[in-house]
Protein 1
Amino acid sequence: MSISKSTSTITRRTLLGALVLILILPASALPAAADDFGPAFFCDAQGFTNCTDTNNPALAEDTFSCEGTVRDIASCRNLLTGESAPYCVFMGEDMAEGASTNRDAYLCGGGPERFNDAVKHEFWYLVEKAQQQIGYP
């Protein structure tokens, strides 16, 4: 019986681990999925350094090279795929649970007419929802 119980415990833990991974991968893409915007990325505060697809660089899968005006408008290129995003807008500083992560958030897509308060609100709603799904921070 102990072998069966041990196997059951291992199976449950493996399935839980797989579920966590399944949630982590799409969660980082949620903000970009809103209304055909994207990509969304985060850079070290006050600069275009260490730009990644998540607010936690340790979990990043993609990195970006950007130029433009920090905390305003930028054009960026995904260093992994080479895909470029010519119009990216500063969305604000990421505040995880009320504390600064020292990461600035940007969202790319379309032109200036597409960005308004509703888009900004939806962006942060989706970022927070993704963070809750993966238990970050």
Protein 2
Amino acid sequence: MRRLTISAHACTETLRLLIAMAWADGKLEDSEKAGVRGAAEVLNLSKDFRDKLDAALGTALPLDQILFENLQPRDKSFAYVAAVWMMNADENVDDKEKAMVDELASTFAFSDDTKKELDAIAKDLAKTGKDRKWQDEIVALFKAIPPRLEKASGDVEVTFE
């Protein structure tokens, strides 16, 4: 079994990115809140951290306030796929959300081919309808990134440091 280790910094900044994406269109939908909260559950965050996350959901977060500089390539890919996934959380993609995703791809210096590949991964993860299970989609997100980055097959165990 391969292990994907996500640093605390990468987890924190990805969650902050999800909040920025949720607010990108200027409003926060219940489905977007559920997506961020589902991510927090899967990441097995402490109650204190989840409470802080809930408070952070109350205001928009500009993309330029997210600390991407020290993210590894796999963390950037993970964060990007998470952002595209969040863009589709309310099933209504706004031009401002698309622009934020494009800005993120540019910030990460992704080639067009890499962007297309990661967009396809995110599209495959997203489900629609009222029976969505955010936790299942987040787990699928974790499992989708390692094969693309490591070009290997087999089971993946996700750990956080």
